What does this fold into?
Amino acid sequence: MSQPDLSHFIPRRLDAAGKFLFWDLDVAAIGIVGVLIGLGAGHPMLGLLAGVGLAFGYGKLKKGKHPGLAAHLVYWTTGTPPPKELPASHLRELNG
It folds into this structure.
């Protein structure tokens, strides 16, 4: 029997995370932003190294955690967008 063709990605669930080549979309975005900042500053190799380093570090931070880690980090550091059902991020008291 012949082997199945595994040269493409088929998501098993509708809520599967987006991919850019073989990286998760948020990790790839961090790397691309680093490269673009380096290109804008006139130092493309430094931007490439910084982008790859930041993406690698974020990938290590994200490993084994909730898939929505980026949204959680944005909310807890900036407080936006405010959720309708949850209290404000500066309220640290548990009532109940």
User: Anything to note?
Assistant: DSSP finds three helices and two strands in the chain.
